[in-house]
Task: inverse folding
């Protein structure tokens, strides 16, 4: 196992509700600093990265090989032709193939990257506004399109096309940016691809509709299994209060509860006032039990009474409550409800409410050629992530706090709890399933024998790996060549208009007209560098091994 050391990094602790059923067998568990999305599994290693820029490399057995730290949060890890890249929130792309991370591109025209994928040197980017773009090896955008939806996390690419999942479904583009087909679905979060199919994990189409949805989006409100939102239309200061199953109360003086609830939007305080206010409390993983929703008129600024709406999402059920509050500094009980085990009947008590049922959540298997939905794997809950075994014989759907496994005919084989929260990304290899859940990287045993034991409550607990922060590496400075290097290749910086390109120096057996994917922050006109190896990636070269400055 990894060597033991006290951590020098601040680790975010996540409150995870207790499992609601049998827990899956784990081989090991490793902690990062913060929430992680990126994961990649090779034939012998697993990599994961988090929102603080911490990147870990472990063997399948859980031996810690390396730790790296870069300046920005990492959203994804991508493999392309044997090269491993990190895609960061700010558009930076790092090459991890030769050891320490090396900044090779900075994507232009993107405020926040959601995901990237690569194929034969072509980088495809999706962002939080539903944009999709093809980017060259220099990080320059060749084309950029706005999809018919928003929040496009899923992007997959192969030689035939680009597959973009967003709030309005999945769209296929050719490599010139032309739409090939569009398949309308419920909102897509993550996706996976096999040779002939893409798999899209479907989540909820926003908790609420209409005006409150616009205000929540504008305020940056978060969502989860349970969401309670308050809307009114005056500058009065109304406050949303929720009493949790534990008896703890969430409100403006106590915004976060021990059970994971959070008041993330609080408006019309003394500091600022709006005529279109909204407040929001949410649970990513909601504890089972009884909830009470209250509204308080903290400050009266307009009129004698304030009409308001409270919208409540309790897993798949969405309700709206209309009422009026008159007296200042009094508490009005709006609604009480129960959160139960998944699949159980929910109960609630209140008046003047309207309720609608949201459709089932699922994974959809879509033909890459035609866009036709071939199979629907009904999960019954939002599916933040999905992956498959070889050729799609088993489909693993990450649902709140647990994983559901289906066979290729969409029959559910099992559901087991992770014990460490929601699966944000996962990848299958052999009989192992690797996943990032909150700030944990876990290795799960999904062999038939291990699953049978877990279903009977006899799951393997697995090792808790210790992190040795003394081995953390940061991106290396480029060394000066000392003249003793042998077997190296010279590349030279050439000014082309306003840009500086890097190309192989002529006379070495390489195409001197091809660009080399190379760190932009060390380029200067006329500078020469020595590199260990150049690998052809279609229209350009990539560097493998060390880089040293020659002059």
Result:
């Amino acid at each position: 196992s990894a060597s033991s050391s006290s951590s020098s990094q601040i680790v975010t602790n996540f409150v995870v509700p207790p499992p609601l059923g049998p827990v899956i067998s784990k081989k090991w568990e490793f902690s990062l600093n913060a929430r992680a999305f990126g994961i990649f599994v090779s034939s012998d290693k697993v990599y994961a990265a988090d929102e603080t820029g911490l990147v870990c490399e472990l063997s399948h057995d859980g031996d810690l090989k390396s730790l790296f730290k870069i300046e920005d949060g990492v959203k994804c890890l991508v493999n392309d032709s044997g090269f491993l890249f990190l895609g960061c929130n700010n558009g930076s792309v790092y090459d991890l193939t030769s050891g320490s991370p090396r900044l090779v591109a900075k994507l232009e025209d993107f405020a926040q990257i959601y995901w990237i994928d690569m194929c034969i040197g072509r980088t495809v980017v999706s962002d939080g506004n539903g944009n999709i773009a093809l980017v060259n090896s220099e990080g320059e955008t060749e084309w950029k399109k706005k999809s018919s939806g928003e929040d496009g996390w899923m992007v997959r690419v192969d030689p035939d096309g680009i597959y973009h999942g967003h709030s309005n479904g999945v769209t296929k583009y050719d490599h010139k940016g032309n739409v090939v087909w569009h398949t309308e679905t419920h909102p897509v979060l993550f996706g996976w691809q096999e040779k002939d199919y893409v798999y899209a994990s479907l989540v909820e189409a926003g908790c609420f509709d209409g005006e409150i949805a616009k205000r929540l989006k504008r305020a940056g409100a978060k969502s989860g299994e349970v969401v309670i939102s308050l809307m009114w239309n005056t500058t009065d200061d109304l406050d949303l209060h929720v009493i949790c199953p534990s008896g703890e109360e969430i409100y403006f003086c106590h915004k976060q509860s021990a059970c994971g609830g959070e008041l993330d939007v609080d408006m019309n305080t003394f500091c600022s006032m709006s005529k279109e206010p909204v407040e929001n409390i949410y649970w990513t993983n909601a504890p089972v039990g009884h909830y009470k929703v209250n509204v308080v008129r903290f400050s009266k600024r307009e009129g004698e009474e304030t009409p308001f709406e409270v919208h409540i999402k309790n897993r798949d059920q969405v309700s709206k409550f209309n009422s009026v509050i008159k007296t200042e500094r009094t508490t009005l009980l709006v609604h009480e409800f129960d959160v139960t085990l998944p699949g159980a009947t929910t109960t609630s008590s209140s008046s003047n409410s309207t309720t609608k049922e949201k459709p089932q959540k699922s994974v959809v298997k879509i033909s890459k050629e035609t866009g036709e939905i071939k199979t629907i794997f009904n999960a019954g809950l939002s599916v933040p992530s999905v992956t498959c075994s070889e050729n799609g014989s088993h489909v693993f759907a990450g649902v709140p706090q647990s994983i559901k496994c289906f066979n290729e005919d969409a029959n559910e084989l099992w559901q087991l709890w992770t014990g460490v929260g929601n699966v944000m990304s996962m990848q299958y290899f052999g009989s192992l399933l690797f996943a990032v859940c909150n700030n944990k990287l876990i290795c799960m045993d999904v062999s038939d024998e291990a699953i049978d034991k877990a279903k009977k409550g006899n799951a393997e607990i697995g090792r808790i790996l210790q992190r040795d922060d003394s081995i953390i590496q940061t991106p290396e400075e480029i060394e000066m060549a000392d003249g003793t290097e042998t077997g190296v290749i010279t590349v030279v910086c050439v000014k082309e208009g306003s840009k500086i390109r890097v190309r192989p120096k002529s006379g070495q057996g390489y195409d001197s007209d091809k660009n080399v994917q190379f760190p932009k922050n060390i380029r200067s006109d006329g500078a020469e560098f020595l590199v260990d190896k150049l690998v052809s990636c279609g229209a350009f070269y990539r560097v493998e091994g060390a880089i040293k400055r020659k002059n």
